[in-house]
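Example (one chain per record):
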Amino acid sequence: MDTNRKIAVWAGILFIIGTAAGVSSVVSTQSILSAPDYLGQIAADKTPLLVGSLCVLVMGLALSLVPVLLYPILKRHDEILALAYVIFRGALEMICYIAMTLCWLFLVLVSQETASAGAASLPALQSLGAVLLKGNDSIAYVLVIIFSLDALMLYTMLYRSQLLPRWISIWGFIAILLHFSTAFLLMFQVIVMNTASLINMPIFFQEMVMAVWMIAKGFNPKALPQ
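Predicted structure:
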């Protein structure tokens, strides 16, 4: 297996690991974070939030390695976009994932203080918990925007270079624009999270199809410099 083939395979595997970890984090934390008494539930059982935090870090690490792996190939077609892709997905996204994890870990600490706090300090702790929860939501909105921009960079390079079939890139363009819209629709409360999840399904399936294609078939040999 040559170097370019190995890069395609590992990039596909990292896409799958990152997506699986991201879905696991949502499954682990969504019910507890959306509960009216989320601080009480976290205090009673912090495991889901800790597991979710670990999954977010795994997702961030896996996905941040993708542009680093692809850079040697993508820079041959557009060095500036390839470098921007590394900065956005490799660095900025990882910063967001770390910030989200910190919000969740601080929520665990606040919930533990709430469980033993007196009546006088309880409102302040609840307010702090609300700030952390809102902060996490704000980071999620920023993450959607950053991810959308770096995905557009990737699909632009893939479309121009034809490293993968162009229908994969076109599907990616359409799906990521839908995903991008959810940040603003949620921010202005036009839609609810369940609706946003449905809108995000095309990009979820697109990335999985792209990942499987990269693992099974690799890059188009004709698009690779000899």
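Caption: The chain has one domain: 3-218.
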